Amino acid sequence: MISQWRLRAAFAARLSDMYGREVPAYTTLVDVSREVNADVLRERGADAERLGSLGRVTAERHGAIRVGTPAELGQVARIFGALGMRPVGFYDLREAAASAVPVVSTAFRPVDEEELARNPFRVFTSLLTPADPRFFDDGLRTRLEAFLAGRELFPPELLALADRAETERELPDEEGERFLRLAVAAFELSREPVDRAWYRTLEKVSAVAADIGGVRSTHLNHLTPRVLDIDGLYARMTGRGIEMIDTIQGPPRWEGPDVLLRQTSFRALDESRPMREPDGTVAEGALRVRFGEVEARGIALTPEGRELYDGMLGLVDARLAAEPGAARAEVARSVWAAHLPATERELDARGLAYFTYRVSPARARDGSRPPAGLDALLDEGWVRAEPVVYEDFLPRSAAGIFQSNLSGEGSRDDAREGAAYDTDWLAGALGREVLDPYALYAAQRRRSLARVAEELDLPEIAAPQGAV
């Protein structure tokens, strides 16, 4: 029998092999990521693994896919449910991008700490929003919905195997192998001819819309390794002649703790695709939709920490508007230095980031009585705080990556009111609960405090309650 986590690990590895064959520059990205990670470990020692062991970081991947209808999204949820992955978070990229990105998204990932440690594979999954009149008028929406209704992304056999794996939390070897083959094949780039006129019609609205609704299949848009020094990777990739996007999305590089998520990518490449002309003939064309992303993960922030982060982004934007010639990275570093705590201890004490807590074995054996309260336990060395890795995504950064790899700005009519999509709507489309990432992190912290209290024979220990 093959357990869910082994199915998940095998699926991630096979996707990586497949994507490397389809997009050779991705293999270069993975190789450089490994080089950088090994160098960082040599330079920093154990501190390099504070946010995850080298084995986990090197094996870690997140993928990205796009689908067109709630029914397709529900089928995706079944496939990833087979792998022990649940939908976490709601991201509205329509509001996060300056250009036209008409999608809302969630991320499928493991949620249990042990499962994340075994294999933290994530898939950022975007759903087209044809009902949003800012992007699609009535006529185009009708045509688009009819086109999407007429395609089948996932074969019934794959979905049946997925349902069995989710229910039983494992599959027999033969069925597991069949599931993996069908699942990987579902995300390969199709060689079916693309209707050039229809694709171009959607591309005028958004290159993302064309990639979703202009073809009769879905595919992996990018597969993302994790790196311990994203600035070093950016420089090495550029040195190898790989064209990178202009910036690293997310927080700046600075002297204090890394928080949330930093991302960058190499630019989408022209890929040969057969195109069907209006007269029915087929000729080779080229589309630019797939790219190679890389990420560096930091510490998960609490709602108060996220409020501070969003406020700092606003300050950076305001300063750049006042000083158009200023370098964004330099402005961001100065804002971070002025507003974000420079140590993990202060982040924790102010309740801005999530940590778990572990009893120090030496103090537990010295015969003295531990103090009450988390601050005293930390200050006197009874307990160690360990940062919780941010396992999720940032809509502004995701939109920035999408936008940097689009073939054009597209069109959006901001005079019209956008269609309402939210977490509850998404849960209805999925047919399952969309989990709150903050609740997951808070539960992880709460469990660790309960373990500390039990080991030290103390009453309940309260979590930090600081505020911005």
Automatic annotation (TrEMBL):
EC number: 1.13.11.93
InterPro entries reported in the protein's UniProt record: HGLS, YdcJ_bac-like
Cofactors that this protein relies on: Fe(2+)
Keyword Iron in annotation: yes
Superkingdom, taxonomy of origin: Bacteria
Swiss-Prot/TrEMBL keywords: Dioxygenase, Iron, Oxidoreductase
SMART domains xref list: DUF1338 (SM01150)
KW Cytoplasm (keyword) present: no
Alphabetized Pfam families for the sequence: HGLS (PF07063)
EC main group: oxidoreductase
PANTHER family in the cross-refs: 2-OXOADIPATE DIOXYGENASE_DECARBOXYLASE, PTHR39479
Sequence similarity: Belongs to the 2-oxoadipate dioxygenase/decarboxylase family.
Full protein name: 2-oxoadipate dioxygenase/decarboxylase
Organism: Streptomyces albiaxialis
